[in-house]
């Protein structure tokens, strides 16, 4: 999910990169530092920077190499459904889709992805699908 965080002048770009990288890895507070990897693998998180973008001195963003071969809406739906029980609450693929939709983010597969989730779960909407997958727990 995309978010824009504006940091004050007192935060060095190096520390901002560390913070962004740790956030992407769900390791906030770990104190780990981002190091540009010598080799980029399937799930490598890269932190890049745009200078002077939209009136902001430096804009940092993450890039992750595609990690799902032969992607399809049905495959995304199966992965999202499976992630509901495996992931911390709110960090599963279905919540990601739901939050993306709420933010107005659409991809070429978004609608088919949602339709596939609903077909697999027999639900009328994503909230109902999540409720069913969580065994009735909101």
Terminal residue distance: 21 Å
Overall average pLDDT: 88
- Topology order in helix (H) and strand (E) letters: HEEHHHH
Estimate what percentage of residues fall within beta strands: 5-15%
* Uncertain stretches of 5 or more adjacent residues: none
Shape: elongated
Helix content: 40-55%
Major sheet characteristics: 2 strands, antiparallel
| Alpha carbon gyration radius | 18 Å
How would you classify the helix and strand content by structural class? alpha+beta
Name the strands of the widest sheet in spatial order.
1-2
Count of helix runs: 5
The number of domains is 2
Number of strands: 2
Offer a quick outline of the entry:
With 138 residues, the protein is an alpha+beta fold. The chain contains five helices and two strands.
3D architecture notes:
The protein is of the alpha+beta class and 138 residues long. It folds into two domains: 13-64, no CATH class; 73-133, no CATH class. The protein has helices at 13-24, 73-86, 93-102, 110-121, 126-133; strands at residues 45-53, 56-64. It has a two-stranded antiparallel ribbon with strand order 1-2. Helix 2 (73-86) crosses helix 4 and helix 4 crosses helix 5 (126-133). The radius of gyration is 18 Å and the shape is elongated.
């Amino acid at each position: 999910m995309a978010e824009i965080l504006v940091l004050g002048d007192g935060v060095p770009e190096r520390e901002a990169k560390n913070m962004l990288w740790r956030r992407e890895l769900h390791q906030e507070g770990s104190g780990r530092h981002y190091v540009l990897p010598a080799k980029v693998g399937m799930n490598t998180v890269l932190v890049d920077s745009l200078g002077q973008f939209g009136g902001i001195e430096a804009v940092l963003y993450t890039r992750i190499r595609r990690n799902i071969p032969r992607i399809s809406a049905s495959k995304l739906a199966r992965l999202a459904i499976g992630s509901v029980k495996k992931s911390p609450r709110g960090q599963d693929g279905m919540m990601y889709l739901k939050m993306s939709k709420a933010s107005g983010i659409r991809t070429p597969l978004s609608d088919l992805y949602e339709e596939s989730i609903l077909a697999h779960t027999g639900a009328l909407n994503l909230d109902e699908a999540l409720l069913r997958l969580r065994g009735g727990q909101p």
